[in-house]
Amino acid sequence: MLGWLPKRGKSAQSAATAAADRLIDEGNRAESQDRLAEACELYRRAIGHAPRYAKAHLNLGAALEANGEQAAALASYERALEQDPANPYANYNVGRLQYARGELSRAERLLNEALRARAQFPEARIVLAAVLEAGGRLEFAAAQLEAALRERPQDFAALFRYAAVLKTLGRLPDAQAALQRALSVDPQSVEARGALSDLLLERGQPAAAARELERLLEQRPDWADAHYNYGCVLRTLMRLSEAESALRRAIALEPRHAAAYRRLGSVLLAQCRTAEALELYRAARASCPDDLDLESAELFALNSSESISDEALYRRHVEFGARLERAYPLRFGPFGNTRDPERRLRIGYVSGDFGYHVMTLFSLPLIERHERAAFEVFCYSTSMSTDDFTRQVAALADAWRPVAGRSQAQIADAIHADGIDILVDLGGHSGIPQLAAFAQCPAPVQVAWLGYLNTTGMSRMRFRISDNIADPPGLTDALHTETLVRLPHSQWCYRSFLPAVEVGPSPLTRNGYVTFGSFNQAMKLSRTSRALWAELLSRLPDARLAVLGVPKGRAQDQLLGDLTARGAGAERITLVPYVSLQDYFGWLGAVDIALDTTPYSGGTTTCDALWMGVPVITAPGTRPCSRSTASILASAGLPEWIAPNAAEYVRRAVRFAGERELLAELRGSLRSRMMASPLMDEEQFTRDLEQAYREMWRTWCKENPA
């Protein structure tokens, strides 16, 4: 029913149009009472009286559309447009349905025509904004929505859409304001409240996000996605028991909620419950057999498991890679990239961690120091979150591409459209998975580096960057689908989050006893690591041990039981839950020797310990992820802290604990030694990696002549 259409003056109406108007009025009354078939018949009779009367065709189109007859409705709107090409409502309705059918070009033209005929037409502006948004012209879409809201400031749908566009544009404060306005119009909208909670989390306000989700769940306690989002926020707040409950509730409501299984697994890992997490993943794959992200999360967790052999772990990766590549077939090629082995190359880095994340410590120096005459740097961010570190990376890149929210095919399309020569994955099976984009091969050369210390399992990932200690020649090559490219110095290049924090004196000189410490993620605290530390405490009756990152409750109770199994008193052990960055560095300064974990070794925490003058002892294994601390120690010039086996790990820890002068000397010299080593030589590291890229490119050019 289009009762809001202007009516012609009686003096201008013929008898035919007057009769048509009477029938249209009857049709409007029938339509208002949901008697749609009767209304359609009345409108058709009106058209019989005045076949060229656009108003009659428009009313028939509206009734047909209300009755679910989209094609017939469009035909009626088209006939109205034929009779009156300047009619704003005919242009609007045809444009609106053309947009719904994906005909963006014609929809845009018609909607603009409607606005030329009737400038104050917020409905047309809202649909035009959707057309512009679908075409990627977000700034123009925002402008149309702003104009619509000036005319109709309480329009909930426009406010909600406006917030979504602003969020995509990165205007997060404005998006938040729009959502809050939308909620003032409709406080009961669970969609708007859910969107607001997502936005608050993205803006680094998880506590506020949790409050919004709690209000939402009061309204919709049966909404699985809301429980899932609440669990994610609680995970961020490290309220792990509550997060577990929320995620289990989401799964109970939606047993095939793969994302909830993935996040629940991460919650269990954060509570040192690796075996439970792996069992959960196995059960989840039975419920969600086609969810590759779920299998990827399981592979990440398996790296810390002692119940799987290196060879079996490799086979699991290969099986995953085969499934991924079947699901995402090759879509590009032959590549048109110029086959000049010495030309300037376009390097694309893909990561979900361009922000306040440990990966930024290692990627930022590289992006900053790339030789721009030889390399053009593109960064593809797959995370919605933005912070000061994100903005720093974006400013350093030659091209910044925020691709969060896009499909894996769309991400691959964006990479291919940019003409990337060498595409580098910084995540692997950790964090936000993006391997499906790599499976489509949008670039000629594809490389994995540092974000995941193992094979991806993909045949289409050509190379993996490493070094001679992390992956000694002949030791791990057979455990990779990629060709290992070993940098001559180190695969690590460290820059501290807190470069100005001071190194204090050795705690041993103050306390009179040695203090050991562990700072790795809770998932890395394996039974072997616990047994080694319990043995160490039994060998050194005066020693103390501090373990950070262990949540209170079940995780701490279990760990304390394991550590006291060899007779050490609980008073000698300090278990600390998650702390702030400042407090974390404070705890680093409170220990004399850091203890590495096995089979999943430390990375950033090892570098942080050395930065604070704390040596780290490790016993590398044969699994790639078990050798990261050994690689770092070798780069820092501390090979004597690399034990060949578990027994020697304990013996060396006992010996070093008794060498007060050595520990004091290391306390005062480690930072300067570290800064003078390859571990912090940003220029050398960048040149090494650039040379590796150049050799990869030369190989591709040789294998793929023009």
How would you characterize the overall build of this protein?
The protein is an alpha/beta fold and 706 residues long. The protein has 4 domains: 10-200, Tetratricopeptide repeat domain (Serine Threonine Protein Phosphatase 5, Tetratricopeptide repeat, Alpha Horseshoe), CATH 1.25.40; 218-302, Serine Threonine Protein Phosphatase 5, Tetratricopeptide repeat (Alpha Horseshoe), CATH 1.25.40; 311-493 and 681-706, 3-Layer(aba) Sandwich (Rossmann fold); 507-680, Rossmann fold (3-Layer(aba) Sandwich), CATH 3.40.50.2000. Helices cover 55% and strands 8% of the residues. The chain has 31 helices and 12 strands. Strands 3-2-1-4-5-6-7 form a 7-stranded parallel beta sheet, covered by helices on one side. Strands 10-9-8-11-12 form a 5-stranded parallel beta sheet, sandwiched between helices. Strand 2 (375-381), helix 20 and strand 3 form a beta-alpha-beta unit. Helix 17 (292-302) packs antiparallel against helix 18. The radius of gyration is 31 Å and the shape is elongated. Mean pLDDT is 95; it is low at 6-12.
List the helices and strands and how they pair.
Layout (H helix, E strand, L loop, with lengths): L14 H18 L3 H14 L4 H13 L3 H14 L4 H13 L3 H14 L4 H13 L3 H14 L4 H13 L3 H14 L4 H13 L3 H14 L4 H13 L3 H14 L4 H13 L3 H14 L4 H11 L7 H18 L17 E7 L6 H12 L5 E7 L6 H9 L2 E4 L5 H10 L4 E4 L9 H5 L5 E5 L13 E5 L15 E5 L19 H5 L3 E4 L8 H13 L4 E5 L5 H10 L9 E4 L4 H8 L4 E3 L8 H8 L4 E2 L10 H8 L10 H12 L2 H16 L6 H22 L3
Parallel strand pairs: 1-2, 1-4, 2-3, 4-5, 5-6, 6-7, 8-9, 8-11, 9-10, 11-12
